[in-house]
Write a structure and sequence with these properties.
By secondary structure, the protein is of the alpha/beta class. It is built from eight helices and five strands; from the N terminus they run E-H-E-H-H-H-E-H-E-H-H-E-H. Strands 2-3-1-4-5 form a five-stranded parallel β-sheet, with helices on both faces. Helix 2 packs across helix 3. The model has no long low-confidence stretch (mean pLDDT 80).
């Protein structure tokens, strides 16, 4: 696969959306509900590549750099830290660049994209809850998810405060659900 690390995973669910859309929350919940699934994030992959603590602004800059100049290293780091279970699905939040998805698909990887598009009011309300969040919402990397909507497999739009029915979302994404959940 051209040296691209895919681990033992057979399928990848990538979650896109603007800052504060709930990508991490949705990814965590999907991994908890979906059978045979593990979790990772592009921000965790970036932190691994940087080998140091990054401010939010530095994380945005590093994400843009790697996405445009060495997306393979970003992908490999993100997959490598996933802590795989015995499962075959990897759920990754934070995809921002359409060309990465297209490249992964052209390499034959099974990639499903979930895009979260909350209303402006929802984003503003969440921004007010984040103390000390200094991310630049005008950063070029924050605009990247817009283009992903054209190739997204599932798009959730609106004022959803949270996605409440993760079993239904698993069904939309074609994921089996775990049995005997607490």
């Amino acid at each position: 696969m051209n040296g691209l690390i895919t681990g033992s995973f057979e399928r990848f669910i990538l979650i896109a959306g603007p800052s504060l859309a709930g990508k991490t929350y949705v990814g965590d919940r999907l991994a908890a509900v979906a059978h045979s699934s593990s979790r990772s994030s592009f921000s965790a992959g970036l932190r691994m590549l940087a080998r140091e603590d990054l401010t939010i602004e530095q994380l945005q800059d590093a994400g843009q750099y790697y996405a445009m100049n060495n997306w393979q290293a970003l992908w490999s780091a993100t997959v490598e830290i996933a802590n795989p279970r015995s499962g075959s699905n990897l759920i990754i939040d934070g995809i921002r660049h359409r060309h990465i998805i297209e490249n992964l698909r052209s390499l034959g990887l099974r990639v499903t994209v979930l895009t979260l598009i909350p209303t402006r009011a929802t984003l503003e309300a969440r921004a007010g809850l984040r103390i000390g969040d200094s991310r630049n919402r005008e950063h070029i990397i924050e605009a990247g998810y817009d283009d992903i909507g054209y190739i997204s497999d599932v798009t959730l739009r609106g004022s959803l405060a949270i996605v409440s029915d993760f079993y239904a979302l698993c069904s939309l994404l074609g994921l089996d659900v775990r049995r005997n959940l607490p």
